[in-house]
Write a structure and sequence with these properties.
The chain is of the alpha+beta class. The chain folds into two domains: 32 residues; 143 residues, Immunoglobulin-like (Sandwich). The protein contains three helices and eleven strands; from the N terminus they run αβββββββββαβαβ. Strands 1, 2, 4, 5, 7 and 10 form a six-stranded antiparallel beta sheet that branches.
């Protein structure tokens, strides 16, 4: 019996040594393989200015439609004008969503109002907030170097009840200033939900 017990102990000792050696060999045989992955580039130009994530800028130049009774490029009651915003996905390697928000808080007269937004390169622009418009630039659009060209229209409503205020604003020679914020996020397949307010 003593002999059988010694053989069993010796067998388990050899089995333990074998398993320790085998697991050490597995551990030592694994290799660290360096993986080189370039990060996605993210450079977007808005009206020729590079934007990383978001920026607010002031629109001060409004192109006014020709009116026979108003001097050229002058916004006056009863006239309409526009300003353009161009988004160029320059050296960008991911699809992205843009949100463009304008504010009338700094406009000194309530007679000037937003008249509409249009896009000339086939992008779909969705109103996603009270003063926010959004769109998606796909990877295909980026590879084909398609820019987003938006035209934002404004109008000065000719309201006789505001004639005194309109005259004061017109005589003050103040510059029309419209703050616009553009915000970018990586597009992950979400659906743009239209504003219902």
């Amino acid at each position: 019996m003593k002999r059988v017990l010694i053989i069993i102990v010796l067998f388990f000792f050899l089995l333990t040594c074998y398993e320790i050696t085998r697991s050490y060999a597995l551990f030592e045989s694994s290799q660290d393989i360096p993986i080189n992955v370039d990060g996605a580039k993210w450079q977007i130009l808005v009206n020729d200015s590079s934007i990383k994530e978001s920026a607010t800028f002031e629109v001060t130049e409004v192109i006014v439609d020709n009116e026979p009774n108003v001097l050229e490029n002058r916004l006056a009651p009863g006239t309409e004008g526009y300003f353009d915003i161009q988004i160029v996905p320059n050296e960008t390697s991911v699809a992205f969503r843009f949100d463009l928000t304008y504010s009338w808080d700094e406009v000194d007269t309530s007679s000037i109002e937003f008249a509409g937004i249009s896009e000339t390169n086939g992008y779909t622009i969705v109103r996603t907030g009270e003063n926010t418009y959004s769109g998606i630039v796909t990877l295909s659009d980026i590879e084909n170097e398609n820019a987003v060209d938006m035209r934002i229209s404004v109008r000065w409503v000719n309201n006789e009840a505001n004639s005194l205020i309109d005259s004061e604003y017109g005589l003050s020679k103040k510059e029309l200033v419209i703050p616009v914020t553009v915000h970018f996020t990586q597009y992950l397949g979400e659906t743009l939900v239209a504003y219902s307010g």
